[in-house]
Amino acid sequence: MQLVSDELISRLRTINQFSGNQIGQNRLVYSPTWVKGQQQLIKWGLAAGMAVTVDAYGTVYLDVIGSQSPNGIVATGSHMDTVVHGGKFDGLYGVVGGFQAISNLVAALGRPKKTLRLISFSEEEGSRFPATFTGSKHYARVADVHDIVDHHGISFDDARQKAVAKLQFPGVNTGLPALPDSFTELHIEQGPRLVNQHLQIGLVTSIVGQRRFTVTINGVANHAGTTPMADRHDALLLASSLINRLAIIARTISRQLTFTVGELHVWPNTANVIPGKVTFSVDTRHVQKAILDQFETTLRSEIQKVAVAPFSVSVNRWVNDQPTLLDADMLRQNDRWARKLGLSTAIFASGAGHDSEIMSRVVPTTMIFVPSIKGISHAPEEKSTPADLHAGVALLQESLKHQTY
Ligand code: GLV
Ligand code: MN
Ligand code: MN
Ligand code: MN
């Protein structure tokens, strides 16, 4: 059976080229580059004779209908969106790699007994709107999005409807397909473990829980030259001391608790005006809910302490995703297929969030990681070797074959 195909690399390149000369990949959900990515996938699916469905959130489903049990569905896939200035593989590798694995199987073995489904989720990153995993949450029927806007004031519903309308090609079905019997997500590791240990495949036991907050500090804007230092209420100075304090607290709660302030907005953001308002994000993750609870309680009490008039400080939690165990039997099976293919494996928990944590709430779910060079991800330098990318597809293909033929 043909396991390695240059089609994989060329398909990745085709979709990545839609970001043009921008820094890194910018397929924010419902943006023009995202639309082109999902359109391209639909075209490949139609050309391959697959049944194509698009749901109301813009998630694309490509099915090879099973010859004996068409309602038994084995699904694989990942997400089409990226972070701002993201890499070439986060999400897209699982989409294109899944398409490749299914295409290879059909080319080698013909129609499967059960239905093989490739899913390209609309959104996972939470980088445009204040919500994460909106594609898989919609498909898994666990949550829908209401009344949120992006930084430009564009509503989720408006952006969604306009973008999804552009995916309605002739031959494309609309609706929300049935849930599958299992889900396997192929993904780059996004961390350094596999490269450091010179291993080819990561098998994922669990996914960290994550919470994201926006903290808003209102101070008093005033003249930078005339306001005495003792009379200032500088929102940025307060934010920076609060951020430092929270970073230290996070470290003392648990060395495995991650703490990131990746977004900061300053008003009026001018050199000669004391900042009157600041907002910043907090992203925190851990495998134990109790640790996340402890951090959140401390965050709220630290905010109360510094909210002394005329300062006012508020916090809005907009992500609360629980730590998740993935399917142990599927992991064991994949470990077995990996050995059969001569691939070395490591078994560990994921510090990144994935659609798999949502899918695992409704169906047995597993993940396959391949090494990320230097462990870099969510950056333009994100890279994996073609050999490792092919190895991940080979393992996915073996796993899908055993589930469907
Ligand atoms: C999304 O990729 C996340 O893990 O933040
Ligand atoms: Mn991802
Ligand atoms: Mn990501
Ligand atoms: Mn992620």
UniProtKB/TrEMBL annotation:
CDD domains documented for this protein: M20_bAS
Pfam families, per database record: M20_dimer, Peptidase_M20
Listed GO MF terms: hydrolase activity, acting on carbon-nitrogen (but not peptide) bonds, in linear amidines; metal ion binding
Peptidase M20 dimerisation domain ranges (all copies): 209-307
Binding site for Zn(2+) 1: 79, 90, 187
Cofactor binding comment, as recorded: Binds 2 Zn(2+) ions per subunit.
SUPFAM superfamilies: Bacterial exopeptidase dimerisation domain, Zn-dependent exopeptidases
Keyword Zinc: yes
InterPro entries: Amidase_Cbmase, Bact_exopeptidase_dim_dom, Peptidase_M20, Peptidase_M20_dimer
UniProt-annotated binding residues for allantoate: 212, 272, 285
Ion transport keyword on record: no
Binding site for Zn(2+) 2: 90, 125, 378
Keywords: Hydrolase, Metal-binding, Zinc
Cofactor(s) demanded: Zn(2+)
Coiled-coil intervals: none
Domain of life: Bacteria
NCBIfam families named in the record: hydantase (TIGR01879)
Family: Belongs to the peptidase M20 family.
Protein name per UniProt: Amidase, hydantoinase/carbamoylase family
